[in-house]
Inverse folding.
């Protein structure tokens, strides 16, 4: 499964993205999305950074701080490889 992490906003609004392939099942992905889905809409906080996870199931706003430990390595790698989107 191919996933893309998209980071937007911040003090200087810039959109960045990173992508990778994972071996998650659809059920595993749905369970993960349920845990990390953002509570508020992106853009409701001034100068805030927001994250979205794009998968074959669509795009979902996520709270990066809610990522369970078993997925932390994947998300840390994605965050470390974020590149500016032109």
């Amino acid at each position: 499964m191919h996933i893309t992490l998209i980071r937007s906003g911040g003090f200087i609004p810039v959109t960045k993205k990173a992508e990778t392939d994972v071996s998650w099942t659809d059920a595993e992905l749905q369970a993960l999305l349920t845990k990390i889905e953002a509570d508020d809409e992106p853009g409701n906080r001034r100068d805030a950074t927001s994250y979205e996870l794009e998968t074959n199931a669509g795009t979902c706003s996520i709270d990066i701080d809610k990522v369970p430990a078993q997925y932390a390595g994947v998300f840390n790698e994605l965050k470390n490889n974020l590149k500016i989107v032109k």
User: Anything to note?
Assistant: The two ends are 25 Å apart (CA to CA). The mean pLDDT is 90.
